[in-house]
């Protein structure tokens, strides 16, 4: 929020007003985190329980996420391994990294 707030200062008067509001909100959040250190852990636990509840209610979605992430990881590791083997065989040939991964 601090980054976006500072970017808004380059816009018109409305951007400066919104930027000041975002910076004030950011500093208020920092104050709350220092004043009440248990707040961050409570928010994290609350969010994790929501995620666990959603995934337990939707096991098909959870399985789809696991299979897609496994496929993406496998594709990335295979591309990295092929790039490493190509560079080991010939240092004068430069291979470009894959432009996109298909799952």
Question: Could you provide a short overview of the structure?
Answer:
Helix content is 79%, strand content 0%.
**DSSP E strands, number:** 0
Mean of residue pLDDT values:
80
What is the CA-atom radius of gyration, in angstroms?
23 Å
| Largest sheet data | none
- Residue fraction in strands: under 5%
The share of residues in helices is over 70%
- Ends: how far apart? 33 Å
- Helix and strand succession? HHHH
**Number of separate structural domains:** 2
What structural class is derived from the secondary structure elements?
Answer: mainly alpha
Count of separate DSSP helical elements: 4
Describe this structure in words.
The protein starts with a helix and ends in a 14-residue tail after the last helix. The protein has two domains: 1-35; 37-78. It is built from four helices and no strands. Helix 1 runs antiparallel to helix 2. It is extended. By secondary structure, the chain is mainly alpha-helical. The longest helix has 31 residues, at 59-89.
